[in-house]
Amino acid sequence: MRIKIIIFATIIMSFIKQPVVSAIEFTDYKNMNEIVIMADTITLKTRYYNGVLQYRHYNETKKRWVETDWINY
After folding, report:
1. C-alpha distances in angstroms, 27 versus 20, 22, 32, 41?
2. What spatial distance separates the first Cα and last Cα of the chain, rounded to whole Å?
3. Which residue has the higher pLDDT, 11 or 28?
4. pLDDT for position 22
5. Residue 44: which pLDDT band, with cuts at 50, 70 and 90?
6. DSSP string covering 24-62, please?
7. Is 70 exceeded by the pLDDT of residue 26?
8. What is the pTM of this model?
9. What domain range is 45 assigned to?
10. Mean pLDDT throughout 9-26?
11. From its phi and psi, is residue 43 left (phi > 0), alpha (psi between -120 and 50) or beta?
12. Distance between CA 18 and CA 70 in Å, rounded?
């Protein structure tokens, strides 16, 4: 009886189409002719202030500082 239920379930599941979502369906790689940078470019800026080495991150993409203040090493 158990084998009949497994066979019946297998047959039913073979007729049911389940949607398959793939990243390839959403991206058209054939028309991509250029590189697109999606992430921000962050650079590390350093300075000596009163004899103390400090650093700060600068967002090159948005042209602004990430932190509001300099951080001591």
Report:
1. 15, 9, 9, 24
2. 73
3. 11
4. 47
5. very high
6. HHH--GGG--S----SPPEEEEEEEETTEEEEEEEETTT
7. no
8. 0.48
9. 2-72
10. 57
11. beta
12. 54
The pairing of strands 52-59 and 42-49 is antiparallel
The average pLDDT across 22-45 equals: 69
How many structural domains compose the chain? 1
- Collapsed DSSP state (helix, strand, coil) of residue 17: coil
Contacts of 66 (CB under 8 A, 6+ apart): 42, 56, 57, 58, 59
Q: Are 48 and 64 in contact (CB under 8 A)?
A: no
Reading the block at residue 65, the tokens are 């500082």
Q: Tokens representing 15?
A: 């007729």
Give the residue among 41, 63, 45 at the shortest CA–CA distance from 54: 45
The reported pLDDT for the residue numbered 65 is 94
Token digits of residue 32: 């991509």
